[in-house]
Specification:
mainly alpha; about 0% strand; single chain
Length: about 150
């Protein structure tokens, strides 16, 4: 609802605006300093992630969850995980390749579970979402699937 000239006074193009919003979403999460030193930290990190994304404006939710904006969500996740890899390198006592897999597993699954919760109409509380996600990520599917 603004004039095109006004927009271009503030942004070079739509990609610049999108990048600013991506950084805003990621930085909101990153400003909460949580480590990856032990399982308790991972549980805290899951809570921080969901408490942060569920309090974002509706625009951010749509950008993170809509299929047509998947590159937006992936870039936010990449930005967060890259920061965490640098800040917490060696936290798991694994070689770099395996540690990268752990970070990828956490990042991708947290985002995926959030999107699924939104897609399902947020039919249960954020606390239930955090509890289920914590069990899935920290214990793997064995917490829910019998052998």
């Amino acid at each position: 609802m603004i004039n095109r000239k006004t927009f271009y006074l503030h942004y070079q193009d739509l990609d610049a605006l999108l990048k600013e919003v991506q950084d805003e979403v990621a930085d909101e999460f990153l400003k909460r300093n949580v480590s990856y030193r032990n399982m308790s930290d991972i549980k805290d990190l899951i809570r921080v992630y969901f408490e942060t994304v569920t309090k974002q404006p509706l625009l951010h939710e749509r950008l993170l969850c809509s299929g047509s904006y998947r590159p937006f969500s992936e870039e936010v996740n990449r930005h967060i995980m890259e920061h965490r890899r640098k800040a917490n390198r060696g936290a798991f006592g694994l070689d770099e390749r395996n540690e990268n897999l752990v970070f990828a597993y956490y990042g991708a699954n947290s985002a995926l579970l959030y999107r699924q919760w939104v897609e399902d109409g947020k039919e249960f509380s954020v606390e239930e979402l955090i509890d289920t996600t914590t069990k899935l990520i920290c214990n793997g599917m064995s917490a829910f699937v019998k052998e």
